[in-house]
Amino acid sequence: MLKSRAAVIVKHNEPLVIQNVPVPDLDPGSLLVRITSSTLCGTDVHRWHGPLELATDSLPIITGHEPCGIIEEINGERTDILGNKVKKGDRVVWSYVSCGSCYYCSVAVQPCICPSRSSWGHNRADRHPYLLGSVSEYMYVPAPCLIVKVPENVSSASAAASACAYRTAMHGFDRLGAIKSHETVLIQGSGPIGIYCAAVAKDHGAKQVLMIGAPAPRLEVARRMGVDAVLNFEEVTDPKDRRQWLRDHTGGRGADIVFQCATNAAVPEGLSLLRGGGRFVNIGVGGRAAMAVETLPQQLTFLTVRSGEPRHWLQALDFMSTRADRYPFEEMISATYKLDQINEAMDAMASFRVVKAAIEFA
Ligand SMILES: [Zn+2]
Ligand SMILES: [Zn+2]
User: Fold this and answer.
1) What is the pLDDT of residues 292-301, one digit of tens each?
2) CATH topology of domain 170-304
3) Parallel, antiparallel or unpaired: strands 274-282 and 301-304
4) Among 97, 192, 251, 303, which residue has the fewest nearby CB atoms (within 10 Å)?
5) Residues ≥6 apart with Cβ < 8 Å to 262
């Protein structure tokens, strides 16, 4: 039986182990993909440290949920999200799967909150179909996944990042709606989602994009990705000074739009930086905060975002392909590792030393 070398979490907080995981037979409509690149995400680090809140994950799991790869085998005929035939050798990413028939999928048309939704990077590696984590030589693509071909000018690592961080950002912009040309967008957080959001906000016509984040190397990448002014919160530690900085940049009002791309703990400060009547897009997960309802800005619009719909995978890839000459997307992938270096890569992500770490497969 064919096996796939994969990075497996066998115990929380202990080094990941490279194991030979079985490659399953393909059900009709499913695919086997040879992974070219898998980027790591903060969520992978959280899952390594312990189960996510509300999650019932059990070990062992193959880490990673941001894959890009080349189709090795298809059981039957498949088309991509645009209706084009896919074939062996195509470089692709693929969506998560919602059930399609529950209230959220079929009536509310909010498939990201489908209670039966399946996703990757937290599935047991010792149960069929085994290969549902992306830091693995091969991945199994269940039949209901929608397939998106990767444009030639987008690297596998950037495409892999579109499978989580970037498509979530696109979902946020979808929920937000239009940005007007007089509006200032503030981004909280200088991780991959924050920096990608900055580029999209600029592209969608914001007058200026401001960012509060850290550490300095991430903010330098953010500058090159279109951010007009950055504030390093490791240097400006008093929230009062940060508020003043924001007011100085917005005629004393505050930002028209805030994207929280850090952690829930950043929400109270983010709301204090939003003008009355502003729009707040809450993307960053983890962390906790409590605040008094009576301090909320007047006429606030508060939007939360979970994951992305299949079309957001496509939008994220299209954006990188068509804006390749304007934004240095490759700078977001700040470190590449081989499969055997998975623990080094996880440490780098856990310490925020890199914007995004990619595991590259030859
Ligand atoms: Zn992720
Ligand atoms: Zn559903």
Assistant:
1) 999 999 999 9
2) Rossmann fold (3.40.50)
3) parallel
4) 251
5) 188, 189, 191, 194, 213, 284, 287
Using the mean position of ligand 2's atoms as its centre, give its distance from the Cα of residue 284 in Å: 24
Distance of CA 127 from the midpoint of ligand 1 (Å): 22
- The H or E element that residue 43 is part of is helix 42-49
Q: What is the pLDDT of residues 69-106, one digit of tens each?
A: 999 999 999 999 999 999 999 999 999 999 999 999 99
Ligand 1 centroid to Cα of residue 20, in Å, is 24
* Ligand nearest to the CA of residue 103, numbered in listed order: 2
| pLDDT tens digits along 310-319 | 999 999 999 9
Distance of CA 97 from the midpoint of ligand 2 (Å): 9
Nearest ligand, measured from the Cα of 115: 2
Q: What's the gap in Å between 283 CA and the centre of ligand 2?
A: 22
Superfamily of domain 3-149+328-360: Medium-chain alcohol dehydrogenases, catalytic domain (3.90.180.10)
Strand order in the sheet with 61-62: 17-22, 3-9, 61-62
The closest ligand to the CA of 114 turns out to be: 2
